[in-house]
């Protein structure tokens, strides 16, 4: 029996794989596969391009902050400015101004004061500290190397367009000429800017560093780890190994998965209301920051730990049960050790996420201007991301490059944490 | 290879003692009934084989004897199973302790990812059967000798158990199971993942284990049941169809379903 409505080439049973129709089909299939491959490759290339642009911008900007222009000066400490009986109370501003007279002998007092603006505000305190430590210096010269102030730092790094109209610049032609004179005398140098990680925040960009923020972030992450790691593993073990499967455990599971997707600022609001509002915890303390980040990290760790526990083959559980191990012995003696690499990987990824988190820390006041390193987790401090936030908001030119440098420091920490996660996974991963 | 069919009078005498007695056992997974009214007597120092087509409930029944079914949430067991006359589903009986008395070997070799030594020593340690290193050493050696593995691994006891070949791994699992000196040894298709040579070694071992333990083996292979067992139970669709001496089951089956199965028409 022949179906009359079938096309002619389908009337016979044997299909002709060489017919134009079949060839066209093959060509169409191959074409769509090629398109898919090209689109996929394009997406990856685009992503790498974006990443490259981001890194290039950061590095080209941030690398300026990795060096800091310094000036080396011999400062005569005259007895007329500093009383040997009480060296701490001397007029060191005048001492610094007088030092410029060596280089610019013809300058009067007013010009000297203007010239001393080349030095960072820190210079007078550096001299004071030296003199207080050794009062015998009064009447002699003190050799100091201090950062130059931000406008001159920008000038030394070629960031000032000296050909533009004088009104549009921070520095006048005379100021630029003075600085060039110092450069010609070889008093200006550009050493590596260790102050970026060894100094605390400052309102002078040439002095500002990340130490307080790094320590604050470290405290917050430590608190976050100490709370979320044991709690997360405990919750995962209970849910995965002991909890009965019923409607309640389904509800809990769905909620944990949803919590992982809650915007972090919501956790910040919660922490503001509960930790600061009800419990009256100190504002801007890394301890509170750690608690807040722990709230955020907990679902991530629970999910990672549950997946790691689930990945342990049932044959291991059966083997242990079969020789008469109790449920607890099975979990802690066999399942947990095998799941640990996965749990650690998930935990580190969660902590890396917490390290970069800004919004919740802003809400609990970790964006204050703090010029000291927190001694304990209960002292007010900033964290790396909030420090970046503060610097990005500051108008001085020096903070522009320091913001990029701080982002690079943060990225460096993130890369290290992720590398640790990969290392742990490869080192301890077991195969069955 | 083996002469399992010729038993001395003394062995027969020892084998007449009932070790495990099951009466009207039913197992449900949720609403589905997996086992229907199974009653069977498992004798001491005897190999009892459970045969039957896939899904007939033979493994399910095996797992009732050491209460491994308890670990499945939806499972429910009714009826009576006794070990030496003691109800193993009694409220005051600890299933963890029961599993030390009723050892189990699984289908796929599943050594712990630990050393050979620690694999075998694990059971005796958690049950407090050994007090010090010397006792542990002795128990490990005895178990490995019982499992005919001692000569192959005596020089590398600290190597991971997973580094052994498949057949060696399965014998390691047997050593692990006999290390706690169980009274009954349950084996769930212990040779299905092994090659013929390893299978022959394990079968030989099962025959030797009969001297000390009551062995229950689930197998897909009728030849294997005929080679290693003295008693055979044929399961079909959750029912125990026929139970008797292995010789009788394979030569003079009473039930037509048994006859169809052993002649290869169902299964």
What is the fold named in CATH at topology level of the domain at 16-110 and 184-262 in chain B? Rossmann fold
CATH class of the largest domain in chain A: Mainly Alpha
Report the span from N to C terminus of chain B: 27 Å
Fraction in beta strands of chain A = under 5%
Apparent shape of chain A: flat
- Roughly what percent helix of chain B? 25-40%
- Mean pLDDT of chain B equals 87
DSSP E strands of chain A, number: 3
Query: How far apart, in Å, are the first and last alpha carbons of chain A?
Result: 58 Å
Helices and strands of chain B, in N-to-C order?
HEEEHEEHEHHHHEHEHEEHH
CATH class group of the domain at 16-110 and 184-262 in chain B = Alpha Beta
CATH architecture of the largest domain in chain A: Orthogonal Bundle
CATH homologous superfamily assignment of the domain at 16-110 and 184-262 in chain B: P-loop containing nucleotide triphosphate hydrolases
Largest sheet of chain B: 6 strands, mixed
Structural class category of chain B: alpha/beta
Q: Count interface residues per chain for the largest interface.
A: A-B, 21 and 28 residues
| Strand adjacency order, main sheet of chain B | 6-7-8-3-9-10
Quickly give the structural class of chain A: mainly alpha
Helix share bin of chain A = 55-70%
